[in-house]
Amino acid sequence: MTEVDNILACSESVTEENQNYFFSSTLEQLFTAKTRTFKSDKTDSVAVIGLQRYLTEDQSVVGQHQPDIYSYDITVTDGVWQAKCILDRGLNYLVEKNIIRSGIEIKITQCSFLYNERRLGHGCVCIEKIEYGSLESDVLRKIKDLDSVPMLSKDGFGNMALQCDAPLQVGRKHYLSLWNNEDPEGRIWVPDIPPSDVVLDVSKTTLLCHLESSLGCMFQPLPLLVRVIHKSRLRYYGKPGLKIEYPYQAYFEVADQSGTMSLVLWNELCLEWYQRLNVGTVLYLQNYSIKQSYQNRSRPHIDNHRMKSFHSVEVCLNPWNPTAVLTVVPAKSVPSQWGLPEVSYNFTTRSELESLLNNSVCDVIGLVTFVSRVERIRSKGNKGPEKYWTYRWVHAVDGTSSIPFILEIYASSQPEIFNGIYPMTYLVCTQMRKCQDQDSLPYLTSSCETQIFTTGYHKGQPYVLDNRVKSFIQWTKTLKDTVMMKKTVVGGHYSFPHAPQIFTQSLADGSAQVPLVAAVDLKREIESLRYREHKRLAIQGQIKAVQYMIWPEEALSDQQMFQSGVGNIMDVPDPPSGQKTIEVTEISQNTVPSGVQSSSSTRKRKQPRKRKMMRCYLPHARIDKNSEAGQDFTEEEPGEQEEQSDPGTEEDIGTIENNPDQTIASGLQVPSEIPQSEGNTGVRAVANCYTSWESSSWQEQKKEVSEYLRPGGVYLESLSQRFRFDDKNILLQQSNLHAARWTPEETAHTLSPVACKGYYRITILGINQQMAIDAAFVPVMSSGDPRSLGLPQDPHDNTLLSCLSSGFICPLTDPLFQNEAALPEPEEILATAEELKDTNFVLIIDLCHLGGEKVELLITKVYRMTDIALV
């Protein structure tokens, strides 16, 4: 039976009582229809269970746009069935911005069945149009055991299909991690399992020092007996047109009594062996090949081993021609007579870090006190498919200094460890490289050879016998948990090193420490951001208005939001250039009970009719087709339709449930003739404007502004939270990237942001007065804020300009002491804002896409013109 027959059989086997569910009715209509495409008029929602990414097989251009490099399989459920479908590539941007994500509900309005024209009986369902639904799925809430829901897939139905770990496009054999290319993804990767006992004949082996002379020889070299002393992260080198099913590569450094050499694991062997080969593993290698070494790559620092390194050749382990044979020797079976060197480390204490030269490499161990949210940066100079590096910042103390290690840790192909770093755990990082800018604290950044280990993963690691590690463990036994817990923080915005005191730009090519962009280009930079992508940019402009917004902002119900005059904004962005949407507006006669007051005013307001927004996504190809058919969908004026909805209906499709971590700040009113880009805000709560200042020239200048960007305020993800073990899982969930597969969420206790009672919303007018933009300034107020570390803390007079220039309010409070001098009130700071009037500045802005509609714009430093140098 072909898979098409299987799916047909599944649609026919549904019982009468399930006929009203989405999949049972949709599949029946899809296969009985005379056309390939099926348009659904049902209002039933389905929940997104999981998203899976892979390199696309078909590189055809969608419309007039560049082809998408990646494709996505999406698994959805209606509560009775699960189904894995292909997502139309015109909707890829919804995944890339984390709009479509696991755990939400969507309404599938159009789908089709795609046959594979090169394979008999192969095909799958393709989702072509959707409407966005609730952030919290009622469907998933009713499911007690997700694995018990039968699957409709290319293998038929039943739990056996859940074991399928391959893309629906039959030309691809494996999935990539959803947010990067370095992490192993799926059950095809063999986990680390204890080696079985072996009996080896080691009488006929060769040494690494003899392999250089074997290069080019026709005979097969003798077996090798080596120990792994370093391990690099995975490298994925797949690209369109490459006919390799598993394009992976991993480097190891191995050693025997004669020296060290690089070993390369290729393709399918990475799946079988990468997670089983660890630092300290002893290998017996047969059927390997010798190749000339690739010189243009990073190498681990191994001077501490005091052994000769052979760099001219490398050992290659291939899945074919020849097929390499690897045998892991259990540690208990390794006799000292083999002469294999022990793994050596170069642990450095925090007190010694200052004396190390820049770019020096060291290993560190520390007690974690701060873990930032995970962010991504786009890989530069990448000739292959577009990819992102994922990273996070960590502070760790070792008792030798009052200043912690500042660690920039990139994903090291250890996703369970990387995503599981949290305060009060012991963290070991190997092969870290020292970086230090002028007038800045040193920090350590990871390399390709960095391995990380935290609590639960230390057992059996060679470093547990190191004297520096033993000394650290003894120090931790002297600590009091209650004292250390007061210093622990998780998540929030964090960027290091801090902006320099002087902003310099090259006269030759215009380059600067931070890219200086035109204000009119800022919109393009914001729109190009993908989920959790971070950028730091500089713009020139004037500060025209400042509002102090109280935090936490008051979360309101839907009715209160409409009463306070805040529209119900869809949590979906405008699509990329060329991508269009159809918006459908429903108007209900329901009104809000009279007497309800706005959070920012005690004045009663006229109750507007409730509006529900539904945004329907069309891929590029569908837009082109609709245009040819005469349907007029323009980007400036999308087709809208208003309907009367029955009183009392509770249709959730197209609306957003209020969420405390999504906030909207009501701000300066902009004349209707000025286009406002509110697309990157999401649904937010109404903020209380405590006090404000505005330049006397702003009202006139505002009339000349061609566009005013108001991308949002401060979100829950923007602020660091106090760590508590009771909330560990929810805090990790918030600070990590959104999971590819849905799991039931835990309910958090009341979270405690670190020393944040409010923030300043700054209105910036570009230097050419064509573009205005709102950005937030969250000053550092406490030494318990992780952003305070390394921040120049010269005393200042707490004027608004000095706070913007320094980044903090003076003096910083100490969270361990309650009786300290009171900080100035926001009114006192804003009373000094007049000195900003009609003055040009250079402003450093950190941009980060937080998913959905939430885009964070934070001002981290403001330069006076006297603080700028041309070199």
Report on this model:
The chain is of the alpha+beta class and about 850 residues long. It is about 10% helix and about 30% strand. The chain contains 16 helices and 39 strands. The strands form six sheets. Strands 8, 9, 10, 11, 12, 13, 14 and 15 form an eight-stranded mixed sheet that branches. Strand 20 and strand 21 form a beta hairpin. Helix 1 packs across helix 2. The longest helix has 11 residues. It is globular and about 90 Å long.
Biggest β-sheet strands, sense, barrel: 8 strands, mixed
Low-confidence blocks of residues: 1-19, 61-65, 154-163, 555-615, 617-686
Radius of gyration: 29 Å
Task: Classify the secondary structure makeup into a structural class.
Answer: alpha+beta
| Quantity of strands, as a count | 39
> How big a fraction of the residues is strand?
25-35%
Mean pLDDT: 80
| Mass-distribution shape | globular
In percent, how helical is the residue content? Answer: 10-25%
Distance between the termini: 73 Å
Quick structural gist:
12% of the residues lie in helices and 29% in strands. With 871 residues, it is α+β, with helices and mostly antiparallel strands. Strand 33 (758-766) and strand 34 form a beta hairpin.
